[in-house]
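Assess this today:

___
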Amino acid sequence: CKGAPAARGCNKKVAELQRETSLHQRQLRETVLLKSTCAVLCQQHRDMQSKNAKLETDIRGLTDSYANRLGALKTRFNEVLLEQRQALKESRTENASRAATLANVKKNLQAAQEVAGTQRRIFEAAQTELLESRANEKVLREV
């Protein structure tokens, strides 16, 4: 830069270059800060992916465990249900047998009551006949 006009132009150029340098330095600091932030975020993302994978594995294990337990409970429920159905069938069979026996007993009791009624009437008739016969004997003795 020779001479005053050239010096002014040179100074302008220097000031412009200083502004550009300052801008570049600020952009460089922001870039470094962004790179650092990105690195932290990337690490957090990897950590979260790792945690998610572990959680998915845990969930799969729990799901399998609960599915196995549910299957065992379902099997046991079906076994108990079959046992209860069998017991109910046996109970119904026993009840039917008892009902038939009870009906037989009632029928026999009714028949016995009828026989007893007939025997009572025969006895009463015989008793009446005996009383009449005694009365007739008494009358005949008196005569």
